[in-house]
Design brief:
Number of strands: 5
Order of helices and strands: HEHEEHEE
Distance between the termini: 107 Å
Largest sheet: 3 strands, antiparallel
CATH topology of the domain at 44-96: Alpha-Beta Plaits
Low-confidence stretches: none
Strand order of the largest sheet: 2-3-5
CATH architecture of the domain at 44-96: 2-Layer Sandwich
Radius of gyration: 26 Å
Mean pLDDT: 84
Length: 126
């Protein structure tokens, strides 16, 4: 009984051993693999990432210029990041958020390549 009272007083006078999670977030560890991020504007849609993905979570459509990943299939092995020739794929250290619906993440390239503008003839002011 006296041992328990000693534990109660020591716990009341010491600081907590846990973090107050939503308010105090822990920094991710070095080389932590949290989620896959994509920079769709630099992607050339070669499909190497989808062929090298061991879980088959990535699909690339060259005609639609779209890149799709199923985050529930992805094992975050970073193989796609290593083989991407343009380094469009990154492994972010932040962990992915919880999801209520099993949706795939689809990235579609909407920017069109710039077309050269023809120069207009210069006018002489004389």
């Amino acid at each position: 009984m006296f041992d328990m009272i000693g534990n109660i007083f020591s716990n009341l006078l010491s600081k907590p051993s846990t973090r107050k999670y939503p308010y105090e977030k822990r920094e991710p560890f070095a080389k932590a693999r949290g989620k896959i991020d994509m920079d769709i504007d630099t992607c050339i849609f070669c499909g190497i990432c989808s062929r090298k993905c061991p879980s088959g979570a990535i699909s690339v459509n060259r005609n639609e210029k779209s890149w799709e990943i199923d985050p529930f299939k992805c094992i975050i092995c970073s193989e796609c990041e290593e083989v991407c020739p343009k380094k469009s794929i990154r492994t972010d250290a932040e962990y992915k958020t919880s999801a209520y619906v099993k949706d795939k993440l689809k990235y579609v390239q909407t920017t069109k390549p710039e077309q050269p503008v023809a120069e207009q003839p210069k006018k002489d002011n004389q």
